């Protein structure tokens, strides 16, 4: 952020103190100096790994360092992420792969290795917990942190502690992160996006309203393309226009969202950094190599994905209370259906049966290019899958699944299959989420 004063700060590379008027670090010569009038008072941070999947792959294969890299499936898939070289060429996350390769035909395409990314993500997460116990993960590669009260522990301000953390990630993990520092979660997240990659941006309380004034309304948390279009139809395109509007008027026009617009437009966000948002869902999906419309073709994929989800739930000792089915039609329209269970489950059998019931209602001749299954409303596994007094076969299927799990643990996931998946082969490429 720009500011009128030029306070003393520190060098982001060597962490040495930086004089107020210096343009380069007097110790190491780096121009990456961090200064801001509120630098020593701000405590809410958002940390985001830069092009995470692609960065991990480039770390593991130095030959890819200067090449455009896309993480995603084959020609039938979508882009999970792209490195900054590919982004300059126009590649974006969630873009259909064929469009990405049209924009960047020389890109190196790598299928996602979720186990590796999760492993690296956990390593970085533990480093975050070394800074503060108040870490709220948003996904595998980003989190909010509250560093209030950590000055005595780290013998430095939160800003300097974060700079030290960013350098540690580069040195020990081999990828880069961007940091946003502010007084609230909304603006910390905005700041972390400002100067990626290797960014460190600060938005102070004194400058917040003026900073937001000329920004598009889409910058506000919760304002997607559809709602931004609604606001545009009402003549509202910049946050400064919202700053001139009355709270009652915004409530009357847009309901509860109007209240959010009123406060966030003024940089007011009282949400706290919570510990209970580490995982909101566990899911798996696959994009087919060709479109399918019948239950005969879709059910095997649904069963295999249900088994993937169940394995992850059991490994993490958690269970889900709501089953979510995801479908994407051949023209990229998405359908999401869900059903709440009587008790949380981590069983592939239960997840699959509920998903199959939801899928049956969607079989109407529509061809689908993607199917996914997952669970939300996560809880401890201790409450999962109590005895079913109505379904007499449930306990037998539960015991059979436990036996299959033991065989798979010993001989591999494909060592034993159900009738749904046996002999069906691989019809698409998977992408685990959640």
Gist?
The chain is of the alpha+beta class and 434 residues long. It has 15 helices and 16 strands. A 5-stranded mixed beta sheet has the order 8-9-4-10-11.
Structural description of this entry:
With 434 residues, the protein is α+β, with helices and mostly antiparallel strands. It has helices spanning 52-60, 84-88, 97-103, 114-131, 151-154, 158-172, 185-192, 208-213, 225-233, 239-243, 247-254, 256-264, 295-316, 348-360, 394-411; strands at residues 9-11, 17-18, 33-34, 44-49, 69-72, 79-82, 108-110, 135-139, 142-146, 177-182, 200-202, 281-292, 318-329, 334-345, 368-380, 428-433. The protein folds into five domains: 1-34, no CATH class; 35-50 and 116-202, Reverse transcriptase/Diguanylate cyclase domain (Alpha-Beta Plaits, 2-Layer Sandwich); 53-111, MutS, DNA mismatch repair protein, domain I (3-Layer(aba) Sandwich), CATH 3.40.1170; 215-264, 5' to 3' exonuclease, C-terminal subdomain (DNA polymerase, domain 1), CATH 1.10.150; 281-433, Dna Ligase, domain 1. It has 15 helices and 16 strands. The strands form four sheets. It has a five-stranded mixed β-sheet with strand order 8-9-4-10-11. Strands 14-13-15-12-16 form a five-stranded antiparallel β-sheet, with helices on one face. The chain has a three-stranded antiparallel β-sheet with strand order 2-1-3, with no helix packed on it. Helix 4 packs antiparallel against helix 6 (158-172).
């Amino acid at each position: 952020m720009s500011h009128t004063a030029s306070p003393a700060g520190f060098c982001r590379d060597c962490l040495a103190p930086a004089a107020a008027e210096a343009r380069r670090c007097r110790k190491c010569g780096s121009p990456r100096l961090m200064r801001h009038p509120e630098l020593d008072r701000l405590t809410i941070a958002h940390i985001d790994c830069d092009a995470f999947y692609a960065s991990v792959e480039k770390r593991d294969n130095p030959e890819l360092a200067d090449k455009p890299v896309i993480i995603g499936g084959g020609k039938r898939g979508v882009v999970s992420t792209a490195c900054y070289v590919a982004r300059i060429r126009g590649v974006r996350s969630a873009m259909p792969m064929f469009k990405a390769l049209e924009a960047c035909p020389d890109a190196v395409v790598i299928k996602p290795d979720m186990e590796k990314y999760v492993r690296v993500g956990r390593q970085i997460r533990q480093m975050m917990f070394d800074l503060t116990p108040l870490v709220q993960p948003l996904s595998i590669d980003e989190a909010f942190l509250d560093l209030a009260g950590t000055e005595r522990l780290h013998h430095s301000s939160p800003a300097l502690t974060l700079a030290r953390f960013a350098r540690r990630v580069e040195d020990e993990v081999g990828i880069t992160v961007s940091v946003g520092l502010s007084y609230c979660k909304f603006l910390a997240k905005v700041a972390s996006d400002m100067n990626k990659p290797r960014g460190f941006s600060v938005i102070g309380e004194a400058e917040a309203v003026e900073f937001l004034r000329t920004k598009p309304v889409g910058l506000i948390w919760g304002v997607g393309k559809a709602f931004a279009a609604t606001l545009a139809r009402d003549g509202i395109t910049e946050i400064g226009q919202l700053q001139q509007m009355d709270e009652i008027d915004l409530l009357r026009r847009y309901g509860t969202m109007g209240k959010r617009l009123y406060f966030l437009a003024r940089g007011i966000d009282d949400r706290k950094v919570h510990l209970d948002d580490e995982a909101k869902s566990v899911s798996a999906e696959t994009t087919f190599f060709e479109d399918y419309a019948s239950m005969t073709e879709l059910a095997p994929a649904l069963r295999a994905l249900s088994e993937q989800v169940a394995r992850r739930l059991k490994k993490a000792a958690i269970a889900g209370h709501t089953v979510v089915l995801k479908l994407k039609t051949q023209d990229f329209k998405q359908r999401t259906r869900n059903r709440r269970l009587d008790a949380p489950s981590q069983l592939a059998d239960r997840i699959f049966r509920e998903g199959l019931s939801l899928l049956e209602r969607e079989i109407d001749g529509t061809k689908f290019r993607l199917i996914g299954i997952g669970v939300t409303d996560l809880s401890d596994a201790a409450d999962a899958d109590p005895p079913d007094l109505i379904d007499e076969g449930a306990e037998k299927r539960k015991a059979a699944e436990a036996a299959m799990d033991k065989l798979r643990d010993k001989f591999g996931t494909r060592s034993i299959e159900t009738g749904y998946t046996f002999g069906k082969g691989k019809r698409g490429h998977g992408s685990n989420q959640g």
